[in-house]
Amino acid sequence: DAKTTQPNSMESNEEEPVHLPCNHSTISGTDYIHWYRQLPSQGPEYVIHGLTSNVNNRMASLAIAEDRKSSTLILHRATLRDAAVYYCIPPWFGNQFYFGTGTSLTVIP
Amino acid sequence: GAVVSQHPSRVICKSGTSVKIECRSLDFQATTMFWYRQFPKQSLMLMATSNEGSKATYEQGVEKDKFLINHASLTLSTLTVTSAHPEDSSFYICSARSGGYQETQYFGPGTRLLVL
After folding, report:
1. pLDDT tens digit string along B28-41?
2. What are the residues whose beta carbons fall under 8 Å from the beta carbon of A11, sequence distance 6 or more?
3. For the stretch A89-101, what's the b/e string if a residue is b when 16 or more beta carbons lie within 10 angstroms of its beta carbon?
4. Residues of B at the A interface (Cβ-Cβ below 8 Å)?
5. Are B96 and B51 in contact (CB under 8 A)?
6. Nearest CA-CA distance, residue A5 and chain B, Å
7. Facing residues of A50 across strands?
């Protein structure tokens, strides 16, 4: 399965930007990189996904490295509701998701 | 859009009984559905992949006779835990994907199973 490396935990002050990094050096050339977040006792929530160029939506931005071996999820202004575990997932052969340990984000009021 | 529901949200059963969990895509047709299991303080573990009208593909170490998966329609998949034991107690989560590999997965809210 595709391997990812993410920091175990990160902290951010409320209303400041947060950059969550992910290394996915084994991603194939045609696989999208997907980002989700999960609160305790809830299913993962879709955040964003992209292939090559940077992507934006109402929740976040995704910056993908030119060689596609890493990406960074950007939350432009962190709120307390953004505190969660964030997962980056390169699919296995474009299909299955194998979750790593993710990054636990703490937002400090 | 892209809402996935699960029923029940939590269930308690006695050891040796079977439990069925439903996963529905409410506003899109799911060509592929996935089932995951998550133990406390751990990440999600993929159990199986199912395509509508086909037999599910199980991950290594997942007993197909114990975890029966049926994906009979484009909006419904069911997971039946047969002869449940306390070690099957876990958080079961399904996801659904509408199209090809470029599409993302949308996850249900999860089902908490407690086997006594």
Report:
1. 999 899 999 999 99
2. A105, A106, A107, A108
3. bbbeeeebbbbbe
4. 2, 4, 6, 32, 34, 36, 43-46, 49, 91, 93, 95, 100-102, 104-110, 112
5. no
6. 14
7. A33
Distance to chain B for A88, nearest Cα, Å: 12
Residues 6+ apart with CB under 8 A from A74: A17, A18, A19, A20, A60, A61, A62, A63
Which portions of chain B are predicted below pLDDT 70? 1, 101
Sheet-wide strand order for A70-75 = A18-23, A70-75, A61-64, A55-56
Greatest CA span in chain B, whole angstroms? 42
- Encoded amino acid at B34, one letter: F
User: How confident is the model over A11-59, as pLDDT tens digits?
Assistant: 999 999 999 999 998 888 788 999 999 999 999 999 999 998 899 999 9
